[in-house]
């Protein structure tokens, strides 16, 4: 019998394969070109791909005298389009164990740092809509960068939607574990192939190899 009121899942790297760095890099370079910067500094491109904080984004835009809202709108557009293309052409797929979610006898949700609209597409495209009671990605705004995990903002919104006091958060990154800790939740780090050798500086409550391991934890 489960000891959790709900289970929350990350999306990229948990439900679907994570976006390739090369794809994100090319999308970011295209965004720079859209606003007139044909040869951006590779360090600036990498910073944007890695999840740029607002202060660093301001510095990057100032270096090219860019209007940051215009650049960020281009970046979000091309980043999302590159993801949708790879889902549609089969470059990125859902994991074969996502059906486990339907076996859990508690409410489930998704909390992702990806765009909310991209997450919405993923759930519909891979027929996962009925598996989850709520889901949150971030808005395509500069302000949303401050609300990404390890900020607990979207986790707390999901918990409020589900009207639960305790939940398990399932992720594949250090920021997922930190966000769970800050929200007072237990965490599961899933060591899929892309994060098999990651050294965490924080300790998750549990580590498993796949979502079948999550099912065993939840169902006791």
Automatic annotation (TrEMBL):
It comes from the Archaea. Signal peptide: none annotated. GO terms for molecular function: phosphoglycolate phosphatase activity. GO terms for biological process: DNA repair. Pfam families: HAD_2. NCBIfam families: HAD-SF-IA-v1. Belongs to the HAD-like hydrolase superfamily. PANTHER family: PHOSPHOGLYCOLATE PHOSPHATASE. This is Haloacid dehalogenase superfamily, subfamily IA, variant 1 with third motif having Dx(3-4)D or Dx(3-4)E.
């Amino acid at each position: 019998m489960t000891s959790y009121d709900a289970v929350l899942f990350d999306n990229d790297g948990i439900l679907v394969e994570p976006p390739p760095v090369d794809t994100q890099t090319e999308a970011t370079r295209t965004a720079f070109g859209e606003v007139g910067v044909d040869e951006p500094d590779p360090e600036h491109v990498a910073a944007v791909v890695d999840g740029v904080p607002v202060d660093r984004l301001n510095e990057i835009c100032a270096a090219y005298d860019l209007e940051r809202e215009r650049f960020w709108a281009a970046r979000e557009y091309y980043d999302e389009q590159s993801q949708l293309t790879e889902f549609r052409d089969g470059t990125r797929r859902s994991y074969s164990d996502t059906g486990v979610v339907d076996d859990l006898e508690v409410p489930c949700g998704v909390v992702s740092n990806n765009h909310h609209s991209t997450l919405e597409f993923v759930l519909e495209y891979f027929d996962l809509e009925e598996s989850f009671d709520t889901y949150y990605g971030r808005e395509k705004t500069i302000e949303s960068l401050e609300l990404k995990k390890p900020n607990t903002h979207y986790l707390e919104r999901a918990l409020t939607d589900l009207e639960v006091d305790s939940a398990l958060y399932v992720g594949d990154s250090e920021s997922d574990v930190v966000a769970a800790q800050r929200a007072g939740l237990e965490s599961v780090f899933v060591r899929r192939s892309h994060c098999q050798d990651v050294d965490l500086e924080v300790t998750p409550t549990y580590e498993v190899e796949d979502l079948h391991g999550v099912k065993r934890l939840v169902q006791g």
